[in-house]
Amino acid sequence: MSLNSTPSGDRVHIGIFGRRNAGKSSLVNALTGQQLAIVSEVAGTTTDPVSKAMELLPLGPVVMIDTAGLDDEGELGELRIKKTYQALNRTDIALLAVSAEEGMSDFDRRLLERIKAKGLSYIVVYTKTDLADAPEPAEHEAAVSALTGEGISALKERIAALAKQEKPQFPIIADKVQPGDVVVLVIPIDAAAPKGRLILPQQQTIRELLECGCTTVCCRETELVGTLASLAKKPRLVITDSQAFKRVAADTPQDIALTSFSILFSRHKGDLETQVKGAAALDSLRDGDSILISEGCTHHRQCGDIGTVKLPALLKKNTSKNFRLSFTSGTEFPEDISGYSLVIHCGGCMLGEREMKYRIKTACDAGVPITNYGVALAQMNGILGRSLEIFPETAALLKGGEKNG
Fold first, then answer.
1. Bridge partners for 370 per DSSP
2. Architecture in CATH for domain 271-395
3. pTM for this one?
4. Domain with CATH 3.40.50.11420 in the chain
């Protein structure tokens, strides 16, 4: 995979925050060497967070997020500020732009405390040093001029050093396989499958397995029995698309481990233990309960869409109850989810780890169970325990609480 094709969810997200006319957009342009952001003397030129996937040397693939001034005014200003604060949730490294002409204000200090409270890596960047002298930079500080380029290279190096700390806690599957293992991947090809390509979790899992020295064998669920019979070596693992879980579980011998792409990504980018515990709520839902089904990406809904069609149908079949369903996608995720009885989220392959974990924490803070597509489907098909066998510590959390299938 080239740097230019690196998925947004796997790029370091660098957010630039600060007051209006603190030099945020000029800083974006200077860091990237491109005119990505509109620069104007008029306060409030940037109205909404603008994200741009690009290469930032010496770091590599990143997403730059230019935001509106957090001292914006009026009714529209309040909406812009809300959007800017939401951008903090998908930021890995925050740059707080402070004009050297004006210095650090009480507003900047409050914003910095908010950044620290999020646990973000950060740098306070004094801008416009061609117009005024900045204070001697302390730890977590830098001084630059977007006009002359002074300090820009050094700032890039500082950002790259911070980015090395922003690594996922867990790989997708690398720690559960050995070189020479055979892994079978079950990939349904139906109306909801993208034409001419594999979806991102499938691509990334295959790539990681190849890097581990494993032999990967791909087939549809309709060919799984024949595929397994044709193999001279017993597979270490079968990984399936969650929507084919029930059939694949029936066709996979009990002595072969089984899981799904979605469950792997729950551990890789989210919190598998929390989402396994959240699945227990599926057995205690009542008529009229509100359920949020959320996806991290935006795509054209197909007739067999898993989030809006297959999951609701299986919920109805398994519970015989009627629910109030809400759907969100992309960067939209409610700040207040206290009115929901359950959140079912996708694997988050298009989201960064920080944003996925923010969404899980939002649910936990509200006391709302949250689970994952693959975990929920395994639970409703009575195979959650089996699908967690490769994660014995997490499987132990079930303690007999899953449905028998």
1. 343
2. 3-Layer(aba) Sandwich (3.40)
3. 0.77
4. 182-262
